[in-house]
What we know:
Elements: H1 2-29, E1 32-37, E2 43-47, H2 60-73, E3 81-83, H3 86-89, E4 103-105, H4 106-116, H5 119-130, H6 133-147, H7 169-182, E5 194-197, E6 200-203, E7 215-223, E8 227-236, E9 239-248, H8 251-272, H9 306-310, H10 330-340
Antiparallel strand pairs: 1-2, 1-9, 3-4, 5-6, 7-8, 8-9
Helix pairs in contact: 2-5, 4-5, 5-6
Amino acid sequence: MAGIVARSAAVFLACLALALLPARAEAASRYAAYVIDARTGEVLHEENANQQLYPASLTKLMTLYLTFRSLQNGDLTLDTRLSVSSYAASQSPTKLGLTTGSRIRVEDAILGLVTQSANDASVVLAEAIGGSESRFTRMMTQQARALGMSRTTFTSTNGLPDPDNVSTAHDMAVLARALINDYPQYYPYFATKNFRYRGRNFPNHNRLMQSYAGMDGMKTGYIRAAGYNLVASAVRGRTRLIGVIFGGTSPIARNAKMAELLDEAFESHEGTGAYVAEAPAAAAPRVASSPFQPPLPDRRPDVLDEPLLAAATEGEGDAEDDGSAGTDGIGAMIALHAAARPKAQRVAYEPVPSALADIPLPKPRPLRRHR
């Protein structure tokens, strides 16, 4: 009798293991990691770094990059009040709950993005700067190419499900480094732990800032098709690292892996003597050139299935990072983006900015591989 029970248990465990294989394969296929020195661009860790995957709300890092550019150029100020369109107000959570016809200050919209990953505030900024979300996403992709993000295409300003909105761990590290180096005066926004807006408190979704020594930004991201993504930057002494993870299986697992990768990178990098601190990372010199693989054609990731994008029971906006339920309705958002996205809607705001899309863009600054 005992032998029969043992054999039955063994058969059950074998069947269970086989049943879990597809899920494990899916998780492995969308996992990528990348760690670099923010000052020199040296690569300290890479795994599937050039695989095109879904960035989810990491997309908002480019929305913020173009917002900071508008601020630096004088087309916007932190106190500029932007009108909220019906399209912006209709965005799926997570969001600030902006209402049609209301106005929000640029600084509040920025804080909404870096803490709550607010999808409504992201569209408000996009419509103000680009005139429409579709035009703004073209500006995002143009800027990505100028920075050397050759495998990134943006079709969404906030990273809500869209099969053509793709990037890589490598490209997100390039963007994070550009944010730190190009706009050091605005980088401290990413360290905001809590944002209070209209009587509500919005904690930062990047919980690792509360537990990892030296971490001071940047951004989390989640949709079901992507898993749990994170771009993070941490500084110890004068050494600043940038880490990127795509496809974490949970916020806890993702954060633990990021901490492990950064710890290893800090230890190995400092131990080699390869890093010589000459200035803080924000004032670091640019890297002139480095080897890269040729760009891939813009396409959706091969390894992810369309049903994942169409699942209406999951949500975006990092909702599960702060313990709230993901009730965002991805199926509805896909329909909204495909059929109801305004083509040329313009938004009233103060003051009226210039044609930002015509501003010359900087030349690409690729990274240098650590040897």
